[in-house]
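Working notes for the structural subgroup meeting. M.R. asked for a predicted model of this chain before we commit to crystallization trials. I am recording the input and output together here so anyone reviewing the notebook later can reproduce the run.

Input as submitted:
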Amino acid sequence: MKFNASAWISIPAQRYPDRTCIAYKDRTFTYSEINQRANRLAWGLINKGFTKGTRIACLQYNCNQSFELFLAMWKAGIVMVPLNTRDSASQHIDILRDSQATVLIFGSEFMDQVEAIRQELPTVKDFICHGEDSGIYEDYESILAASDPSEPNFEFDENDIYRIHYTSGTTGKPRGVIMTYRNRKEQIAHVFMNADRLISKDDVFLHVAPLTHAAGYYSTPYYLKGAKHVILDKFDPTLLFETIEKENVTCTLLVPTMIVMLLEQENIHSYSLRSLNRVFYGTAPMPTSKLREAVAIFGNVFRQNYGLTEAVQPLAHLTPQEHILDGEQEIVGRLGSAGTRAIGLEIRVVDENDADVPAGQIGEILLRSPHISPGYLNLTEATEETYRGGWLHTGDLGCQDQGGYLYIVDRKKDMIISGGFNIYSREVEIFLDSHPAVLESAVIGVPDTKWGEAVKAFIVVKKDKNPPKELELVDFCLQKGLSRYKVPKLIRLIESLPKNENGKIIKKDLKGL
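Returned structure, recorded in token form:
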């Protein structure tokens, strides 16, 4: 089926031309202005010979160009390859080489990395820079100024690739996840269908999580409804609080690390947060103790969304109404769940033979939905293995209770086998995180001559607390009910945990510590 992307994505500019679309630093842009800037960029890229299917990589912090690039490439049929701002130049080079991107659009903050890429990778022939000084590179604004603002009305096949999004690589080499135009349309419909409150033009969405990831996917439904988008290029707790108060922000998406850091701010009670009605969170586990604290301060506005690079959230969701702090243990215990499965999605939990397991039993989580990626770039065997039987094998281990609530217990690759027993790292982390002196923790398995693997924990201590002794942590876990064979044999205090742009802990980087 053919698909006119421009006709579809330009609707808000027609309906709300004079409404503020984006507020970024000291500038604002109306829907008409953003649409015209996107059109100019689309034509500018087309006139440079970048036709349908050209792969263009993007490296930038959150900015108005984040929206313009997405819209322009959508309209021009150009394939977007987002790069992680936390990665090194060598990691970018690996992705640029694998994706066969021939163009790199970047913010001027990344000039040094881009120069290293230019020297190393001759297959990337065009470099376009936006920001204060483009230096030797082609200037983004000059391309816009010289281009046509009219709509580029092209038709594409729904199965054409519109984006290649690389996995975080927290447990191995990043994989290029293919997304088609059909996937993107289904993803947008999926968000609308699973919204627990009406998305409207009166919303003010604060973007602080990277727009190249889940926050970017969530921006599109709000864009289509004419909402205002307030953009912060980096996470700063004080600035975030000030922005919520100043802009009357109604919704935002935060990773758990951000929420934990907000709770650590001494001045948190000095800001008015009454305008907030939704705080989406996910991408990484959220300690229940921290979640309780957050609900007490922000109010009942939190919504857990479970998602993957291959399958955009929400796959399961825990609504604000389900964030119940008191009552029956079975109900309160669901704070530790990812919620119930989303509408329009099928979920199974299976054993090693892909046979369904009963409620309460741990197995691998499988998914099926039209919004899920069809596979990986240049990885036929990995695609066949991951998508075998028509189901996406997520690599996540979990279980469902009798009410259909989904609990994520670990990644298959992170599960520890010690003395023949399965130990789920997330279970141990939950106990450690509940210690009053622990800010966050990460648990891995390390080789052990006697047991095969031993449990090793990395602990980040709260700034205002004294570091706990190893024996104190062991006794604490035992007293709280953690089985003795699951208690960490090795504990190391660490200033911070290695994380990717989405706040996920990169456990492979802990292996050598």
